[in-house]
Amino acid sequence: MRAQDAPARPAEAWVIQGRLEMVRFRRFRRWESIVMLVALAGALSAARGVAADRKAAPPPSAPFSFADFAWVPGNAGASERPLTAGPFTGEFRMDDAYHYSFADPRDGTISGSSEVFRHGEFQVTQLGFGGDIFYKNVMGRVMTQFGMYSTTTPRNDASPGRGQWRMDDAYRYLSEAYGGYHLDAMHGINIQAGIFMSYIGLWSYYNADNWTYQPSYVSSNTPWFFNGARVQIFPSDKLKIEPWLINGWQSYGRFNDAPGGGGQILWRPNGSVSVVGNQYIGKDTFGNLNRLRVHTDDSFMAKYYDHPDRTISKAAWSLTFDAGGESGGGVTMKDQYFLGFMAYHRLWFDHDRYGLTVGGGAISNPGRYLVLVPPINGATAFSGIDPAYFTANPGDPFKAWDMQVTTDYAPEPFVTFRLEYNYRAANTPYFAGRGGVTPPGGNQGAPGSFVSGWTPDLVKVERRLSLAMLVKM
Hints:
The chain has a 16-stranded antiparallel barrel with strand order 2-3-4-5-6-7-8-9-10-11-12-13-14-15-16-19. A two-stranded antiparallel ribbon has the order 17-18. It is built from 5 helices and 19 strands. By secondary structure, it is mostly beta strands. β7 and β8 form a beta hairpin. The protein has a single domain (3-472), classed as Porin (Beta Barrel).
């Protein structure tokens, strides 16, 4: 069972469900900010009227509480919450992993992933403390991110390079930090602002919540978080409508002169089907005021087998399609677009103690605007890389594909031991080879700059094994 299926007060279930299902959307122009504020004012006014009319009526059912959606990828684990005290529901996360790349890079660096970073070492990907609070319809959530995520996630955001105050340092130890207010209208309305998880690409930022450790590119290369505001509207217990107004595409600040925006629609007609669509628009090219990005991310999930007392206890599959592009500021969508998919099949065994997932996907991204910057000589999304090593010019082709085979063992719903094999490939040298991506003696000069007499060792294929212990309670 997922947290939203736990026997909880209706308002608490609304909060937990809203967090678990959060998805990702992006930037609107300034006039769209006004539209968002008008819509919010209308929702508040309508909510007051509806609440007054329903004072004597029984409370409506909590969203998606009519079935067990523990099988859905990206959901959170056990329904039991042992760290609960009064209005606060605590949460602890520990993600420790050992990754082995068959290329055996000399500098121990793994390139091209937003989940896997070091070779041949035990590393804490995330250590998180936090939880949810709900009191008199006022809500909040905080979750820390100590470990590798506190360095690797901020380096993929170029927005701190615009202006002062080092936002990457200000936020690096927080994966979630938001507050809000719950309205008792329809099946619930949540108004929230802060940093919250974005589920574009279906998979969760937290590996314990997913069917695999390494997701395919349409998830790994799309946003994990947003900084902004959202309104979660639940017209029924089967439908969520969620508009966003945010700073940008996985960014702490704005890249240019406009925020980003978008929205999500989540529909679950029954306990065996989940459909989610995410749409985004924004200006996300650092320093380019005229380039506009659009993106759509749509997933269909189905559970087709459910017999808890049999050897195979559950079976389900997921399919995700992504498409988008950029135009203006020197490019057209002919040169600068994104197409991709990922598909996974999962089996659960022995009362869900064991799991087996097989799947993968592929992308085509001319212009490489969603390709993760290889960490050559300390390169970041802001610094970029010397073109002698890797380019991202309009029309530069980038095609990549991958597959994963994942086995899980969960002796208790609070811990998962995971073994995974990954095969990843690209049409251009991209992954770290034997020689690594770090100059002899360490990084030299400005991040991503040219180093005379040295060349990074990039290869077209990566094969690796991962062993992880994922604790969540």
